[in-house]
Amino acid sequence: MKQLTPNQIVKELDRYIIGQDQAKRSVAIALRNRWRRQQVPADLRDEIAPKNIILIGPTGVGKTEIARRLSKLADAPFIKVEASKFTEVGYVGRDVESMVRDLVDLTVNHMKMLQQKAVTEKAEQVAEERVLDLLLPDPAKRRTAAGLPYTGSGAEEQASVEDRSSTREKLRQMLRKGKLDDRYVELDVTERSMPFVEVFSNVGMEELGINFKDMLGNLMPKNVKRRKMKVADALQTLASEEAQNLVDMDKVVEEAVARVEQAGIIFLDEIDKIAGKTSGQGPDVSREGVQRDLLPIVEGSTVNTKYGPVRTDHILFIAAGAFHTVKPSDLIPELQGRFPIRVELSSLGAEQFVRILTEPRNALLLQYTALLRVDNVELVFEDDAVVRIAQIAEQVNQRTENIGARRLHTLMERLLEDLLFAAPAVDQPRMVIDSAYVDQKLGKITEDEDLSRYIL
Ligand SMILES: Nc1ncnc2c1ncn2[C@@H]1O[C@H](COP(=O)(O)OP(=O)(O)OP(=O)(O)O)[C@@H](O)[C@H]1O
Ligand SMILES: [Mg+2]
Predict the structure, then answer these.
(1) Which stretches of 278-326 are DSSP H helices?
(2) How far is the CA of 67 from the centre of ligand 1 (A)?
(3) What does pLDDT average to over the chain?
(4) Domain 350-446 belongs to what architecture?
(5) 49 pLDDT exceeds 50?
(6) Is 271's C-beta closer than 6 angstroms to any atom of ligand 1?
(7) Does domain 6-112+255-344 have CATH number 3.40.50.300?
(8) Measuring CA to CA, how many Å separate 203 from each of 92, 200, 271, 303?
(9) How far apart are CA 274 and CA 292, in angstroms?
(10) Residue, of 67 and 88, whose pLDDT is higher
């Protein structure tokens, strides 16, 4: 993937997220800076530390959505984690270092996949040869394998070799045309899956950076099984086995770790959940501890992973939080200092709701239309209906709790419930939703505050 300019990044985000321009700009700049740093001469490169960002905004205005979309754009190791999932070192749960380990894991797997793709052609060639071997076994090998002495004399042998190679070529042509796909062959398949290991989770073993499953997998003898399968499947199985053998894992790991150290991005969602004064009891105990554990990682330290030590100095952190009941200043001061860039996301009103309903690639209206089209119901939204839904969303958000764009989900579900239930057995296959329909379905509930608290 090529490197996107900040402008292009914002454009890409625009396809899914309405408004929040400042937040988009900041993350776009940060993303581009990762790449810029790589181009700087080496001595200065090490001095350039990432400028971490906090996205602050009420619930449901697109913070997580930005992260989600960004992860698809970033041509860099990227992981999104919820800060609230972690516990202080020493308590049962995930320690904060696991986010770095996960990032390395992800990157190694991703790069392994890329490498395997790069060798597919070679692997497919090898697989083809091996399938041909299976289809046309070497008689010499067969006899000796059976314990019989090989009896072919010189001339005979010569003739049969030529014969065989022309047969083999014929078979190859048939194979490539797919004419042999339904024939069966027997082959040895290596199986290393041991589902029972899943029962033990990695919790507890994590600090050691040891993956229990991998460890056992390597200890246990490879489980080779003879299986009968169709030629087409055999080709695939052998090709993927071969691809794995062709990839140099040491190199993949080395590159992946370097990528993580130089270009990695960690999105720390729900950071406000670990802010706030601890009351000293209950689940709160670990909040401040988690923040303190976070410090060294954000500041730059070495985390041990099963792929070796990983330095976090240049990993970029983007944090996000609603900061409803707490403020960024409730984070411990050291941590505040590690996130110099603060961006506020604005809360959304009816105007934005109209756009959110219609404009994004994954807009809600498109989703429902597509769902009902499956049942041959054509759903049409009049413009005034969309405006009405947006107005109601704003109104309910003001009167009850402001849950941002999430309100649209609850409203739409309510609005279309009857239709979704009745389809495909509706009277007309074309359903036009106008503002009257919206009022009819939602009017009563929105007028009654208590009712809307429960239903919407
Ligand atoms: N600006 C926006 N443009 C398009 N869709 C949006 C926008 N804001 C929110 N949404 C939609 O609303 C839903 C919730 O948004 P999101 O998960 O980003 O909220 P959030 O800001 O992370 O809230 P929280 O603080 O509760 O985690 C998503 O389905 C998202 O598609
Ligand atoms: Mg969120």
Answers:
(1) 285-299
(2) 10
(3) 83
(4) Orthogonal Bundle (1.10)
(5) yes
(6) no
(7) yes
(8) 8, 8, 23, 17
(9) 10
(10) 67
Q: What integer is the mean pLDDT of 254-258?
A: 93
AA identity, residue 50: P
Cα distance between residue 403 and residue 397, in whole Å: 6
DSSP state of 86: B
Quick one: which ligand is closest to 322's CA? 1
Question: Could you tell me the distance, in angstroms and rounded to a whole number, from the CA of residue 60 to the centre of ligand 1?
Answer: 4
Q: Which amino acid is it at 282?
A: G
**Tokens coding 425:** 């057995």
Among residues of the chain, what percentage have pLDDT more than 70?
86
What's the pLDDT at 427? Answer: 74
Report DSSP letters for 348-398, one per residue. P-HHHHHHHHHSSTT-HHHHHHHHHHHTT-EEEE-HHHHHHHHHHHHHHHH
Task: Look at residue 293 and give its three-state secondary structure.
Answer: helix
Q: Quote the tokens at residue 139.
A: 């008689």
Query: Does residue 133 have a pLDDT over 60?
Result: yes
Q: Return the domain boundaries, the chain.
A: 6-112+255-344, 120-147+155-246, 350-446
350-446 has the same fold as 6-112+255-344: no
Distance 269 CA to ligand 2 centre (A): 6
> CA-to-CA distance for 386 and 230, rounded, in angstroms?
54
Give mean pLDDT, residues 179-192: 80
**Which atom of ligand 1 lies at the shortest distance from residue 57's CA?**
21
Q: Ligand 1 atom 7: the closest Cα is on which residue?
A: 62
> Has residue 200 got a pLDDT over 50?
no
Confidence of residue 261 (pLDDT cuts 50, 70, 90): very high
Q: Is 19 in the pocket of ligand 1 (CB under 6 A)?
A: yes
Distance (Å, whole) CA 428 – CA 380? 12
In total, the chain counts a number of residues equal to 456
Beta strands 223-230 and 308-311, pairing class: unpaired
The torsion angles phi and psi of 232, rounded to 5 degrees, stand at -60, -45
CA distance 158 to 89: 72
Pocket test for ligand 1, best of 13, 14, 65, 351 (most atoms within 8 A of CB): 65
pLDDT classification of 219: cutoffs 50, 70, 90: low
Tell me the C-alpha distance between 215 and 150, whole Å: 44
